[in-house]
Amino acid sequence: MTGITRREFLRASGVGMVVGGLAGGCAGAARGDMAPKTGRRVVVIGGGWGGATAAKYVRLADPSIEVILLEPNRTFVSCPFSNLVLSGVRTIDSLTFDYRGLRRHGVSVRHEAATAIEPETRRVRVGEGYLQYDRLIVSPGVEFQWEQVEGLAENQDKVLHAWKAGPQTVQLAAQLGSMPDGGVFVLTIPPAAYRCPPGPYERTCQVAWYLKNNKPKSKLIVLDANQNIISKAGLFRAAWRDYPNIDYRASNKVVKVDPSGREVATDFGDKVKYDVVNLIPPQRAGTIAVQADLVGADKRWCEVNHLTYESVKHRDIHVIGDSTIGLPVPKSGNIANAMGKICAVAVVHLLDGKQPPALPPGNTCYSWVNDREAIAVVNAYKIDGGKVVQIEQKLTPGQSVAVAQNAVGWATSIWNDILG
Amino acid sequence: MRIALTLVFILAVAGAAGAGPLDAPGATKALNCAACHGPSGQSPSDAMPILAGLWPEYFKKAIQDYAAGRRPSPEMEPYAKQVLELGVDDVAAYFASQQRASTKVKVDAAAVERGRAAAQQCAVCHGSEGKGDRAKLIPDITGQPPGYLRTQMLLFKEDRRSPGDERLKALKALMKTIPDETFADLAAYFSSVR
Questions:
Q1: Residue-range domains of chain A with CATH
Q2: Most B CBs within 10 Å: which of A349, A412, A418, A419, as the mutation test of the B interface?
Q3: Chain A, 261-290: which have a CB under 8 Å from a chain B CB?
Q4: Is the N or the C terminus of chain B less surrounded, counting Cβ atoms within 10 Å?
């Protein structure tokens, strides 16, 4: 970005007017510097699994560094375990946490949205004001590519994704609950890469389990844009033997939805009727990452240094979590948590003028196949030649209550690791 | 720009003295462990064991056994290989240096009393209070989460933990004589010993 003015940058990324318009006035005029910087400061954008972890761990690594976390939502709702809300096995409240723990670590949590990034002046714009940073950690999660499915953008209130845990999760559970017995529930899966590779297949299990027990005449049709189940395939196939109500159709990419006709259409022109639809749209990096020109040529994902998570496009800006691409890791909460810690340590080393340690992430991923049994896949990595490389992947031999107990243990610990 | 960079440099030097809990040797190599085993190995859950305060030689043996598949665990095998890659001695020393606080998982007082009465049979190896014997690598099982302790007893009984290990033959034979429901009582008791 060096040598490009802010105006040129905003024009190139095409967001300047949009941001100014949304903020309802002339950007930069009213609020100015929202919190003048007195010492070293790290700003974190996004308080999800990656960002909240990073904010906490920068403070743990060096409490002399000021950390400001920008997150519009006042509560953190866990995506992992949220499929259990659809089946009624868990409540959304049991997955909802506040940010008090981070404040106890001295993180300044501001419930506001970052609206633009100015790499050249090291500023994050927040509406009409701005915050200065020495290093910026961007953890914006995913945004949906509404335009990829005809009829979706204008029907976001009716055609639910429930792919960001929260109000939509509760609404979809209500739609499932009020569906008549004998009704058809259609779940559509976007082409990889998307957030949480096994998530749609776990959701398939939870919806099928609910229907089997509550609406035995109903059917679940799964339209998967991918050629096969893309995670834990053998374990999910085995689990689905308990659910004859599942009609799984691979290589069925949904390109159109018509809520008035209660119908979706695939790229082959096949039409499928539904009583309730759960359409998981195709995804890209969170909007701020696209606006700030952190994404690559694909305009979807952000490439980063494997040791520091610094963007390959802009200095002093680090990107973690689901928005990243290029590491052999899934877009999972556990990976975002690991990246948050490693990135925090790297950022503190870099601020101290030191070489960051070479630390690899790890991934533990549990999926619930009914109300009391789970399966898991675990990936461990190492750093080889400056790149993250997988050491090993292991699957549980089958589904079991014991694995589900470990899943609960994992969730208890990692929620605490992120927010406690 | 130059002024800003200079300022950053000055502030960086000024702040370099700040010491945090991640400065301990091995702390950063143990970061991934915290996702399941809690901050500083202080597991908050019922299922995952507390690693804080583990004897380093016991931790090292466990990691080596997991990595080699001698102690089968699909969750731990990949991570054990990662710990060996990063340097198991550093990670073992880090957890050994952490003060262990007993589990906060609540147990039923009646179960604790039943477990206390049944615990005599464990004392032969683990000592009268379950504090173990470091020279023989028999672990201190006190204060560990009850769910974890119970699961381990079941795994021993079914010969699924360290199958074929000659040194554990007597332990497994003993476990086969204990009804499953007593494991919950024993777990409640040992988790409550301070």
A1: 6-72+112-143+284-359 (3.50.50.60), 145-283 (3.50.50.60)
A2: A412
A3: none
A4: C
